[in-house]
Design a protein that fits this description.
The complex is a heterodimer of chains A (236) and B (970).
Chain A: E1 2-3, E2 23-29, E3 32-38, E4 64-67, E5 73-77, E6 98-101, E7 104-108, E8 113-118, E9 133-135, E10 140-146, H1 150-155, E11 171-177, E12 180-188, E13 191-197, H2 201-212, E14 218-220, H3 222-235
Parallel strand pairs in A: 1-2, 4-14
Antiparallel strand pairs in A: 2-3, 4-10, 5-8, 5-9, 6-7, 7-8, 10-13, 11-12, 12-13
Chain B: H1 9-15, E1 22-23, E2 30-31, E3 44-47, E4 50-54, E5 66-68, E6 73-74, E7 77-78, H2 94-97, H3 106-116, E8 133-145, H4 149-160, E9 165-168, E10 184-185, E11 188-189, H5 190-203, E12 207-210, E13 213-219, E14 223-229, E15 238-250, E16 254-256, E17 269-270, H6 272-280, E18 289-294, H7 297-308, E19 312-318, H8 327-336, E20 340-342, E21 344-350, E22 357-362, E23 368-372, E24 375-378, E25 382-384, H9 387-391, E26 395-399, E27 404-409, E28 414-416, H10 426-444, H11 447-454, H12 463-479, E29 502-504, E30 509-510, H13 511-519, H14 525-532, H15 541-556, H16 577-581, E31 589-590, H17 594-599, E32 602-607, E33 610-616, H18 623-631, E34 634-637, E35 642-647, H19 651-658, E36 671-677, E37 683-693, E38 696-701, H20 709-716, E39 725-728, E40 733-739, H21 743-748, E41 765-770, E42 774-781, E43 788-794, H22 798-808, E44 815-816, H23 819-829, H24 865-871, E45 878-885, E46 897-900, E47 903-913, E48 920-927, E49 936-942, E50 948-956
Parallel strand pairs in B: 8-9, 8-15, 9-12, 15-28, 17-24, 18-19, 18-24, 19-20, 31-33, 34-44
Antiparallel strand pairs in B: 1-2, 3-4, 3-5, 6-7, 10-11, 13-14, 14-15, 16-25, 21-22, 22-23, 26-27, 29-30, 32-33, 34-40, 35-38, 35-39, 36-37, 37-38, 40-43, 41-42, 42-43, 45-48, 45-50, 46-47, 46-49, 47-48, 49-50
Classes of the chains: A alpha+beta (236), B alpha+beta (970).
Chain lengths: 236, 970
Amino acid sequence: MTHHSSGGPRAFRRSPCSFGAKPVETELRDGWNVVLRYEGEDGHPGREDGDPGREDRHPDPGPRLVDLSHRRRWDFQDSGVGGLRPMGLPVPEGFGEVGVHEGLVINRMNGTQVAIWHLGTGPPPDTPPDTGFTEVTDGHCMLAFVGSGVQEVLEHLTSLDLFDPARNMPFLTQGPVLHVPCQVVTLAPDLVVMTLARGYGETFAEAALASGAIEGLAPGGEAGFNTAFSEVKRFS
Amino acid sequence: MTGYAGDTVASALYGAGVRIFGRSLKYHRPRGLYSMEGESANTFMSIDGIPNECAETTELRAGMAIAPQNVRGDPRRDRFGFLNAFDRLMPAGFYYHLFHRPQFLWPLFQSGLRRMAGTGVLDLQGDYGTGVRTERYLNADVVVVGGGPAGMAAALAAGESGLRVCLFERRRQLGGQMSWRVRDFEGEPLYRRAEALAARVRAAENVKVLTRSLATGVWGENLVTGFTVGTEDDPFRECHWECRARTVVVAAGCMDRPLVFNQNDRPGVMQVGTAWRLARTYGIRPGKSVAFSVADDLGLEAAIDLDDLGVRVRFIADARESGQQDRAVFQALSDRAIPFFPGCAVSRAVGRKRVRGCVLRSLKGRGSRRFHCDLLVANAGMQPRIGTLATANARLAYCAHTHGYQPTELPPGVFVAGSMTGLRDPRSIEASGRVAGYGAAVWCGDRAKSGARAAGRGPSLSPGRASRAAEAAVREAKALPGPPAGCGIIHAPAIGRGAKAFVDLDEDGTYKNVKESMARGLDVPELAKRFAGFGLGPGQYRVAGQNLAMIMADLRGDPVETAHATTVRPPLGAPSIATLAGPGHDVHKRTPLHAEQAARGAVFRRAGPWQRARHFGDDPSCRDEIRNVRTNVGILDSSPLGKFRIHGPDALKALQRVYISDMRKTRPGSCKYSAMCNDMGQLMDDGVVVNEGPDDYYFTTSSARAGATVEWFRFHTRHDGWDYNLVNLTDALGSLNIAGPNARRVLERVTGANVSNEAFPYLACRRITVGGGVEARCLRLGFVGELSFELHAPASCVPYLWDLLMEAGADFRVRPFGLEAQNCLRAEKGHVIIGTESEQRVTLTDIGMGWMWDRENTVSKKVGAPALRACERQPGRLKLVGLRVEEGAKAPRDGTLVVDGEKIVGYVCTTRSSETLGWQYGLALVHREHAFPGRRIHLCHEEKAGGRVTSTAFVISPHFYDPRGQRLRS
């Protein structure tokens, strides 16, 4: 195992879920022990049905489940949220719409509330002093489903229509996945990120991996997610 | 036995020369291959130890273990075969009126009957491959049920419109009946046409094709369920589907309607489709010398095709006197010089264990003729597969033209197409599919266009163009041949008593049984079904359904148009119970300290969505845990406690509304304990509220109510238009309660904050830094009646805090305690738990918590205040009291009744024997007249034998331990 940081303070924050896989590359970040890559991730048999039109095409590693619980998240509520720019971000007009701006994802949840997720690779912003903000990083387990076959995996987990072609990606869906209330953002056909109450994290991840195993779902490190998300940013 | 790839168990057995597959349910008559789609239970077998597997639809795999069921010995020589001779002893409904007297003998008969009529034995210790069953959810604009030509045309039309289409096909290949028909169609054989259509469907990007997948029903709002049977290459054995669709196109096709004649269940009697598929799909010669008794052009076509394949066709009887529509078929018959008998039908099969011949009669009853044959292919025409339509709540009625059930009214968004509408011309069938597919597209409206655009697909039909395409398809369909006249034959001629003319093969239900039901006044199919079991077997309505209704109408003397079928209920096929049950993942909540507590021997129990530590170690009474908190220091994981932030200009108004106290009195740096009531004044929740800044509050709720709190606030302020925001922090913040006389000394070791009694008094709240970096709210509370501090910290940091505290408290032998210890500790202190010491008959004041109520404040319209006012002095109310059980008396249990003579006057909510107090205490709800200190009350104990004993207790204050609260304020 390689550590990008060594000799520094030990990890004092724990993710709500663990995948039972062996990490081969980790990074200590803000007290979190972040797994960048798991053993066998590169050798994963995966799928070979990537988009043939893409020049930067690489062998698709197949669907992965990535733990992003350490990524910072905020709840912002205000009765006039539609006219505000929390963290400088434009608030999407319609409920269920999502904006992606420089590593930050803003989800319009309802008439008074947005959720802001930091999914980029740069440092996260500080929590602004406005009273409307509440940092809720520790309130959720955040999971990403990455790679081809994600749709098939999610069809085992939820009846939500997460790939409705009548909606423009990225978009937000709120509803049950594995019977757990979730906030799900479909960023791309091969990239879906969701949050759920932190307490469910461990058993949810276990169930997701077990149900998705039939489609080849395996634990993935953050590095795979970063690659996929960078492509979303490019196309959004 | 060997078979070929694609063989089913039944086709492989038939190919290997097996003709008797099993024995019938009641009479143990020999049964052979009759159907090919699981319409009857003739070929139900035990496959790999699983009983009731249908050999007709189960694909052959290497190494399968196949055994007959409901057979004593060999299917050819069943020891119970003699029962066939005693059919007179088993009339319709015999089970309900024979063997019941004398009554004490009935269990004996019942068990014997069940053993004899068994349908397989399940080995409860068997390994049935759990874990290979899965479930999937789909969303589609159009679900097409049936992958025949109509279904495929519908799928292509809908797919062309840009819609998401999902097609369910029960067989392993698309094409329906077309896939085994070789007659010429516009210059190519029909099966080629089917292959071409199938290739187009499979190539359509937005059409999901599910073969080997039976749609088991259409439920509310077009939820279509089904299941796929996995092949050896699939990673699953069965997959259950739930597909939410906007529209459903039912193109389920049609099947043979059985011809009811004497001995029609003999091995060697089979449906037209069975013989045809054996020959064309599986390459097996169904018989050497075959007689046909049919009533549909398809039957004639099948006979010609088998003749072309070298099978000797002895004759073809057609129950239709005239009306054969297909002139090409008729000409082919003449060309081949096959004897053809219009207006005739087989009246009897000859042969004991298999068909050796048959008797042919004119339907007008003049003369008969006997033929030798080893296979008798018989039907009474075709009948539509109405199951899917019926589960979709379509109205169905008997059609006197097609002589089948047809929909008279379809539910919104449901379309029907194909041969099930009575169409027989291949062009008409395809055209009807296109009409349905475009109709579905029009129904879906704009979704078609936006779906295609969002998916970046090529040109699709706009709603306007889809509508025009639908109109064109309708015009095209109208120009093509419509449904030909069907055959209304009810049963074969000379049926006589009909004692061995089977209407229902699964339940051994005969024509005679129908008459017996009628004789008892059970003269409609719904009643006969329940009395004589028609349609209750695994084949359900499929074999018996239409014939039963027609026969009963005939016996009643009613026109056949009045024949109403019995209700068809889903599932239309039988996935395994394990598949329906799903994977059964136990997705629940765990606290951030689950692993730490498990490592210390925690015994977990479910509490709502959470797994919580009930106690540590083997002692459920938790004496050591309790003693440690009372005398030393313990740590409780209280993370499931509800934790919320409320902020905004009207936050205080909302708090004033839902809390019963005056919430204006909250002060920064201190906790205000209060409660929420419902409109009836009953205690719903309690917790503390902390003022954290202008219009910004932090509050806690009970664990059980955490999930309902936001809705509770919103509901009770829904008409006010107040501007406030709620954030649920329950999962975001873990919570540790460090309690006991040494709690402060342990806490001091992990924080630089001043936690002395002077700087941090009881009910104070401070932000402190723990372990050199973790920010936490620290609340000084006392639920367990001891000095205690509650640390609320980011959930991800709580394991770190646990380690710190455990390390810091090692000198003191700090140890965790669980919910049971907490329950005992708080009960000794007289602190209530909602739902344990409160219930729907008691209000806040009844349980001694009325002191919280801000009586003067009516402006806030506090929830529950009017009810509290109304029943404050109401007589006869239950009151919460403390009990001290008389020394030496029988110890009560939670729930023990409090009695006054024969009258129940209350019950014990919680009671324990307390080591701290040295006596058995209890908290009880008793009628007001018994609720005063010193009162002697009687506790009623149920004995095992049903007897009762009473013991005595005295009413005392419920605050048994440290009533002045000195310890928690120390």
